[in-house]
Amino acid sequence: MKKNLISIAILLLLMVGFCQAQQIRSYGSGKLSCSLIKNIVQDAHGFVWIGTENGLNKFDGWTFTNYFHDERDSTSLVNNLIEALLCDRQGDLWVGSGKGLQLYSPYEDAFKNVTFVDGNKPSVLHLQELNTGEIWAVTAGYGVYSIDKEKMEATSLVHVNDLCSSTFMHNIHQDSCHRIWIALPNGKIVRITSDLKDAELISSSSDALGKVYTILEDLKGRTWVAAVAGIYLWNEDEHRLIRMEQPDNTFIGVRGMICTKRGELYVNTVNNGLYSVDVEKLALKTFNGQLELGKDRIYALMEDKDENLWIGGFKKGVVMLSNESSQFKFKPFSTFSPSLGNTLSFVYEDKKHRIWTSITNGRLIRIDEDMQNYLSYEVGDDILSMLHDSEGTIWLGSYSGLSQFDERTGTIHRLPLLQGKAIHNIVEGRNRMLYISVLGEGFAEYDKRTGALKQICDTTKLRTTMRLANNWANKVMCDSEGLVWLGHCMGVNCYDPVKQEFVKLECEKDLYPYLCFALLEDKNGHIWIGTNNGLFEYDKKTLKLNHYGIEEGMPSNMVCGLGQGKNGDIWCSTFNGLCRLHDPERKIVNYFFGNGLVDKEYLKSVYFQRECGNIYWGGLQGITGFMPDSIGRQSPLNAPQLTHVYLNNEEVSADTRLGGETIADNVWMDARQINLTYKNDIFSFEFSTMEFRDRENVRFEYRLVELGGVWRSTSSGENRITYNYLPLGTLYI
């Protein structure tokens, strides 16, 4: 048989997109082998491993791989009860279970058994790598073992067992002075000197410790003990353990403890959720986070390389809690309108920084600046627009015409002007005039001082032959020069109130086929136009028109709203998430979910930006508000790693043999070449950046050089690429 007819060399995979943090991600029994979590670790490649009472799980941010014991497979788990996990300094993963110890081989995607020289198959409860690189395992009833990594053998440390006067052990820890702490039954702790010659018994200042779950040293060299009876701090001068004060002196059921990269101490319990440690007061505090843990039973706790907390619960699976706070605020539509069929008509912020909106049942809603509390007014009309003018008057536009609103009484005063007309948009010009879009009838200019009203439609004759191109204006904007821009169903027009004529625009013809829903003037005086065919940038000085759409990286060609950061970045709401164009390079970054974002589909022309910079978008599910300059620019992301390979839709490991040779000569993450045979008609690759906070905002770009070299992109949140019936030879992806 001919071999290696298709050789794929992996040279480059470009990851694009922006990974904004989602504060809470939950994974239950539908993904995990079991929802009873025992332990969680992260390996050198970034995989998160989750040990349970029924199997082991590997997670790359996209895909869970479940491992179980299989009597027909000697390379499977030796037992499904996972008691201990350790990733050593060489990057190897050790798995302690109810029937022994194994080493995971990523190349073979298999487990290698450690032979216990004395013939035992003990339950391995904890693992510790010493400063020498030696690994010790403590067991239930068989004492401590030292692991010979080369021989894959475990030898009983009889001398250490004798120093402990016991072979029943729960936990082990080596401190920075290389002394070894071993937890024994009945709350006893033995500390062995670094030369392994002597041992001393560590005692507490109060009651017996009970079972010890964790012994650790914090960043300042202090040793802590987490036991059933509570949290203890070792005082070397007084040679005793000092018990920390517990909330309300209640029993909290300590199950473990971690020290984060920033030195924070967290305690997980079996009946009171999560606590943080106040070191100065030697007291525990209820964890202050966005996740309500209450009386949750937390059996495992881990901080990953990105400082996210992973919380393993009893029958609740795993929760990842991001270390980043939410930067987008969201007010759900259901808060003030539980009825189906209603939708937001507009969003606006007044001069007192309150947010206003309306729903299609005659209700006007005022929301506090923090987007928490709200007040509802029954006004009888379906309000389409609002303006809080320079004199403090609140104007409302509805299907019934133009009104003034008295906030103190909650009443509206309908003006005879434009009565019975649908007022879609109201703005105030630099000349203090009101400019009002009237659906189907163009727009109107209203002089508040004299009460004079001038209506302009597509048949209105002005000083020049230029006329309004379309009467259905969706958006009105007054720019810094006092010009009035109108976005309608045939592009845009620009009106000069001083000359009382329309300005001839070089871009009008190019925009004529498109519907305009959003307008913005940026800090350079450029006009941004959001349409149903993407985003346009018009330079009034050079008359140049630039276009940005899906091909340029935008998430959708339907642009619903526009805003700008103080740094010059342009923000868009679309039918498929939010979009950001970095200034000045115009690099596009998309935002879909996470970091407080809930909506993915936004409403046309329902947006507002206040003078201080806050932007508000109206979406199908509610209002999203944020300060654009508070959203960090794209930070360096982990390089994409090849994590899974599928041949004819069946997953294979790197050591799989085809035609007498292995597919790859290294683990997938480090493989640079994959060899296939002509029989492999369909094959797929999965990649991961090991970014666990928000995969929905990540997409991958890739290309096959021999097939034209065209860059293609996965959908956001997708990490698999598939090829069918490729030509023979060496191909570069």
Write a concise synopsis of the structure shown:
It contains two helices and 69 strands.
How would you describe this structure to a colleague?
This protein is an all-beta fold. The protein has a domain at 637-732: Immunoglobulin-like, CATH 2.60.40.10. It contains 2 helices and 69 strands. The strands form 18 sheets. The protein has a 5-stranded mixed β-sheet. The protein has a 4-stranded antiparallel β-sheet with strand order 3-31-30-29, with no helix packed on it. Strand 26 (265-269) and strand 27 form a beta hairpin. The longest helix is centred in the first third of the chain and has 7 residues, at 158-164.
Which helices and strands occur, and which strands form pairs?
Blueprint: E1 6-9, E2 14-17, E3 24-27, E4 37-42, E5 48-52, E6 55-59, E7 64-67, E8 82-87, E9 93-97, E10 100-105, E11 110-113, E12 115-116, E13 124-129, E14 135-139, E15 144-148, E16 153-156, H1 158-164, E17 171-174, E18 180-183, E19 189-192, E20 199-202, E21 212-217, E22 223-227, E23 230-235, E24 240-243, E25 254-259, E26 265-269, E27 274-278, E28 283-286, E29 298-303, E30 309-313, E31 318-321, E32 329-332, E33 344-349, E34 355-359, E35 363-367, E36 374-378, E37 383-388, E38 394-398, E39 401-406, E40 411-414, E41 423-428, E42 434-438, E43 443-446, E44 453-456, E45 473-478, E46 484-488, E47 491-496, E48 501-503, H2 508-511, E49 516-521, E50 527-531, E51 534-538, E52 545-548, E53 559-564, E54 570-574, E55 577-581, E56 588-591, E57 602-609, E58 615-619, E59 622-626, E60 641-647, E61 650-652, E62 657-658, E63 661-662, E64 673-676, E65 682-688, E66 698-702, E67 712-713, E68 720-724, E69 729-732
